[in-house]
Amino acid sequence: MMPDAANTRSAGDAASAPAVEVRDLVKRYGRTTAIDGLTLSCARGEVTAILGPNGAGKTSTIEICEGFRRPDGGSVRVLGRDPSDSALKARVGVMLQSGGVPPAMRAGEWLRLMARFHAHPLDPAALLDRLGLSEHARTPYRRLSGGQQQRLSLAGAIVGRPELVFLDEPTAGLDPQARYACWDVVTGLREAGVSVVLTTHYMDEAEKLADQVIIIDHGRVVATGTPATLTGAERQLRFRARPGLNLDELLSALPQGSAAKESPAGHYIIEGQVAPGLLATVTAWCASEGVTTEDLSIERRTLEDVFLELTGRELR
Predict the structure, then answer these.
(1) CATH assignment of 233-300, given 3.30.420, 3.30.70, 3.30.1760, 3.40.50?
(2) Cα(122)–Cα(186) distance, rounded to whole angstroms?
(3) 3-state class (DSSP) for residue 21
(4) 260-273 per-position pLDDT tens digit
(5) What pTM was computed for the model?
(6) Which intervals hold domain ABC transporter (predicted)?
(7) Residue 270: which H helix or E strand, with range?
């Protein structure tokens, strides 16, 4: 039970055109430049995750693509049209971070109302059931928990069988069961040929769901690619020990080309040729220095590692 993009796509649109195309986008708020010449493209029928630290410009970018804000420069095309084009309303679903539902309106009543705005909507009752909201269908929106409100917003975004869905932090505040249910919905959207553009702070979510990941910082794209391309095939040796180990001395004992860093304090990462002998070398060096190691493991570099390398670890 998912939207079928093929049934709603306008014959006038080229099937090969991107779902979203942004070129040299600029957005300012007073003296602050939130988006600074941003260029990106989101393919049709794929899930694109847009990642970035707080203040990176991702929410402003999404709101411009949704038609809620106007840019100060550059161009944006959504399904080949200007985001303000009223013809997009029936073809694009939008899930806001919060709000959008009258507080006193019952969940099922609101979703049925949203369904009536579309020619061939999904069955509201079945959609509520899919997202675990059936028993709350008669509950006013204001009495729903934060996670239930999130799931209802997701239902509202897809009930009209859109070709393209914008999901802004779709699983923020959800418990694990609800989060996985939303993941299943996003996977079903992709399988039905629907284009999905989502923002998230959960790196595992982006790595699990996205066909393409776009990382932005300070209003510009700093990296783009598939999760596998961005993380690469490199493996890392990780361990915990007392903070402040002499990494220069450790590196002198390791094969040439190795790299070592401590981030955060007491957590160490060794990169390079992670061969069987490397593990023995590290443990032997630590033993010679009287250092006790914990949680020593060999792991693949994650999307979170890439994100932090590109955007920094400091709080914003």
Answers:
(1) 3.30.70
(2) 15
(3) strand
(4) 889 889 999 898 77
(5) 0.81
(6) 20-243
(7) strand 267-271
